[in-house]
Specification:
By secondary structure, this protein is of the alpha/beta class. It contains seven helices and 21 strands. The chain folds into two domains: 236 residues, Alpha-Beta Barrel (TIM Barrel); 138 residues, Immunoglobulins (Immunoglobulin-like). Strands 3-11-10-9-8-7-6-5-4 form a nine-stranded parallel β-sheet.
């Protein structure tokens, strides 16, 4: 269990009498390495010596790809590929508080600076809120949409909820000090983590494990459905920047089991209610008679989440028309309107704008309200954005209620996302912040 105190993450460990008991033994297991060490140092030499016994390793030039190509990393990635080891690029999400655009920019920067890399290690991932899960699904689907065979690893560092299973290929479900792991960690008896067939999607990372404690720690990983494992005697402040003293033993012991299989979960639908459409709505004054103010509203709807691979096939603008306001007519290619609902008949691909929708609203002088609500709907018919259009009723007959206080100016309104992600400025060390 973790608790945030003054910006620091403090782990509270609850000891249990049966803490070491697990319920699913692996039949396949491989070593994978979070190698947060410069390529010319010994840990990478060990990875090279193991060859295909290390199916993948994570590289971390500068808490991510950095800003320019480092020839030492390029050379290391090329050697890894030649040796049968995939190189996965490190990306920090800061518990899904970094702007998604920044993370996606780093995805593309990895691919540009180090085209030999073939996946991503998404660090500091949490599933405590719906916004965090939407964030994860967006980044994951962007990676899979642009390069379907890239490997995606999510570092929760602890148990995860089953609903995030679609947004990663492999999950770090435990990252901890070896002694704490032995005394407190238990595998859930039910759910995604406990299913034996999911062993290739579980990764346990244990540090500060001395040579004497190593055999028991390895045995527990193998009894705990962890098809991927890394055990080291390296310690804080960075337990992933040094060689493992019992490296050859680890490789040999894990090699007694058939190798784990690298999974590819493939693209997944985003959770219901995640924001991925945005709309800009503006209203301009139309023709005026003695009894009616006709206002023309224009909507520009865009599939704003280029991260999502699935085109929208059911985009709608729904007007919430109160008594006294009617939808008189509409314009715009592929738009049809009826009973206050305007539907777009064409697919709306990622990053694409629909043709501008224009609707004419008639407000009678008897209308005593001030606003007409609208919603923009898309994926799975979920509502993503909503806002209000001001209703103006100038030049009504003298003595009517609507005349008093009316304005001749319409408003322009930008519908904001329902989901907002707060950004917290934190310094990021060269290696991950441990959970």
């Amino acid at each position: 269990m973790k608790k945030i105190v003054g910006g620091l993450i403090v782990f509270i460990y609850i000891l249990g009498a049966n803490a070491g008991i697990a319920s699913a033994a692996v039949t396949n297991q491989s070593v994978a390495v979070p190698a947060y060490e410069y390529p010319t140092l010994p840990l990478w030499d060990d990875i090279e010596s193991a060859g295909p016994a290390i199916p993948w390793a994570t590289a971390n030039p500068n808490s991510g790809p950095g800003v320019s190509t480092n020839p030492d990393y390029t050379a290391q990635i090329n050697r890894n590929t030649a040796n049968g080891t995939r190189t996965i690029g490190y990306l920090d999400t800061n518990y899904q508080s970094r702007p998604i655009a920044d993370v996606i920019a780093d995805v593309e920067l990895w691919r540009t600076l180090y085209p030999g890399s073939t996946g991503f290690f998404l660090d500091r991932i949490d599933d405590a809120s719906a916004a965090q899960i939407c964030y994860l699904s967006t980044v994951y689907n962007y990676i899979k949409a642009t390069k379907p065979n890239d490997l995606v690893l999510d570092n929760f560092g602890t148990h995860l909820i089953d609903s995030v299973e679609g947004y990663g290929d492999i999950f770090v479900t435990e990252e901890d000090d070896g002694a704490v792991y032995m005394s407190t960690w238990t595998m859930p008896s039910t759910g995604f983590e406990s299913i034996a067939a999911n062993q290739n999607r579980m990764f346990h990372i244990l540090y500060n494990v001395g040579a004497g404690a190593y055999p028991a720690v390895l045995a527990k990983t193998q009894a705990s459905n962890a098809g991927w494992v890394y055990i080291t005697d390296d310690v804080f402040p960075n337990p992933y920047d040094g060689a493992v003293s019992y490296w050859n033993t680890l490789i040999s012991d894990v090699g007694n089991l058939p190798a784990a299989q690298i999974p590819n979960r493939g693209p997944s639908n985003v959770p219901a209610g995640c924001v991925d459409l945005q709309a800009v709505a503006s209203v301009s004054q139309g023709a005026v008679t003695d009894t009616t103010s006709a206002a023309t509203a224009q909507f520009t709807v865009e599939n704003d989440a280029a991260a999502l691979q699935t085109a929208y096939t059911s985009t709608k603008v729904v007007l919430q028309l109160p008594v006294g306001v009617t939808l008189a007519s509409n314009t715009g290619s592929n738009w049809t309107c009826a009973n206050g609902t305007c539907s777009y008949s064409s697919n709306l691909a990622p990053g694409q704008q629909a043709s501008v929708l224009g609707v004419t609203l008639n407000a009678t002088c008897a209308f005593t309200g001030t606003q007409v609500g609208y919603q923009v709907q898309g994926y799975n018919q979920q509502t993503f954005n909503s806002g209000n259009l001001a209703v103006v009723r100038p030049n009504c007959p003298a003595g009517t209620l609507a005349q008093t206080g009316d304005s001749a100016t319409m408003v322009t309104l930008l519908a904001g996302s329902v989901t907002s992600l707060s950004v917290v400025a934190l310094s990021i060390r060269k290696f991950r912040t441990l959970r």
